[in-house]
Amino acid sequence: MPGFRRRPLPSSHATPEQREHEQGEQQRRQSRAPFRWPWSLLIGLIILAVAALIPLSGDAATLHTWTLILMFAALAQSWNFLGGFTGYASFGNVFFFGVGAYSTGLLLLAGYSFWLGLLIGAVVAGLLAFLLGLPVLRLRGHYFAIATLGIAEATRELVAIRNIGGSGGEVELPLPVLSDTAFYFLFWLLALVCFLVTAYLLRSKPGYALIAIRESEETAEAMGIPTYWYKIGAFVLSAVPTALAGGLYAYWSTGFDPPTVFDVGISVEMVLLTVLGGAGTLLGPLISAILFELLSFQFQISGSAFHNSLLGLTIAIVTIFIPKGLVGLGQEFFRPLAPGMSHRQLLVEGVRRVRRVIAANGV
Questions:
Q1: Alpha carbon distance 291, 245 (integer Å)
Q2: What does pTM read for this prediction?
Q3: Smallest Cα–Cα separation from 210: which of 318, 354, 68?
Q4: Averaged over 252-269, what is the pLDDT?
């Protein structure tokens, strides 16, 4: 009838051609929404570009704070490769941070260059991740988390008892030849590389395979995905940049000990930053690292005696009320709903589309 538009058919009764057109329209709407892949990539690159200007401030305290921000952004993004994409929550990633620190520090004391120590630390961490992953990644859930935590704690005690590097495992390094600004840009480069690797995983066959493992490992195996080896690959990928961050931190700080570089609190912060920002997302670890570290710094300079309590309360509030993280909140807020389709229908159709993409790409 004139003046009336025909109501679109529900997705379950639409023809294949109509469903294909509907999916295309939905994809175009989503591609224009904030926090989707192309926009997340652009926003993240802008944030990192602005961060590259921080040294121009000339303020030592600001430079120090932002160096830590970039370090934890890289650490959180590294943890995201395993925990965010596969759903395997490791509480022992600090083990690789310590391996990188001690490899770099001990080689420096032996007269080798910092760059060689950094490289060897990354290689050793990658090999250890591969070897440890063979038995550990056969575990799931809290068993895997406890196993990784146990490895980190046992290593911390062993290094201290064996006096590796010095009394109680303490290592004192000579003053670095690099300036604080040079260290800042090394951490910035590491954060940038981790960010770009995440962007690649979100649009690649390996990334689809890791996400399939997170959603349902049994289904992924039934589809022919070699889940065991993909998990080991993610474990190695997570370990290498973590070790690089540890090596950079060791030389930057000019001294460290087991309680510092094998501190389980570093692992916890990696997990928290990823979860608070949004596990498995591109922007989440970067945004949460900036907000969390700036908030922490603000509490410290305010002289609050309840620094840790305030941070813990902030984390609890965000975790309870924003379970999908800050980026997840943004995605929900800007989610474009197609006409005539419910949120549940969109979700079901999205799951089907992801499965078809995985199968079509022959992951």
A1: 20
A2: 0.81
A3: 354
A4: 92
